[in-house]
Amino acid sequence: MLFKTRKDMQIFYTAAGTKLDQEYGRIKANIIFGAKKRNAQIFSVLSQNRQEGKSTLISYLGIAFSKEEKRVLLIDGNFENPKLHKIFGIENDQGFSNLLADGGGLQETVLKTEFPGLSILPAGTISKQLETSIQSSSMDVLLQSAKRKYDFIFIDTGALQSMITSKLLAAKSDSSIIVVRRMRTNSHDLQELKTSLESYDIHVTGALFNTKKLAWLKR
Ligand SMILES: Nc1ncnc2c1ncn2[C@@H]1O[C@H](COP(=O)(O)OP(=O)(O)OP(=O)(O)O)[C@@H](O)[C@H]1O
Ligand SMILES: [Mg+2]
Hints:
Rossmann fold; alpha/beta; Wzc-like_C
């Protein structure tokens, strides 16, 4: 469930040994394992449909990694319905899309959160020609710069079924994490998802089954 208040975030940050803390500990361990195996730092978080829990997962993950004193950057690549700035209570007047369109330094645009080591690059304000920008050299420069400054980079995306930008972002990432939501994702969705992964040559580290009790699914 998404944090209802900022206090909920702080509670999750300080919590030790709760079920949620343990579950995210497991998810984190699987990601670290997958990252080492593949020498991966950049993960896109994907789902076939809207509202399957991508922004929720990415926000908890960011805080969970912050507990371990890792340097983590969350990039909001959901240009249709950006949410990370709302969740973390930060501005969105400059962000990822502005950097892609106009260039500029990552460090000047990234915003720090109250959690040590956890920074956010909000989606920003540009909505045109993003498909081209994502495939341009400014995207590669941006990701290379992020890799030098952070241990892990997670990219939030919009539903794969409606957004080509999400597939392009995933193709630019080192690997991806798939979110599947109970009672929402059906077998047709999974078939479509598989087709996208194959045609864009997207690597998958693992999948998260989003229920009240989150579970990490092996590939
Ligand atoms: N495990 C869960 N239990 C209860 N509610 C959840 C759970 N996961 C997500 N939600 C709720 O479902 C809604 C959608 O979640 P979220 O915004 O994370 O999805 P999303 O995939 O990022 O959506 P979008 O595709 O619009 O970006 C939110 O209101 C969130 O609080
Ligand atoms: Mg979202």
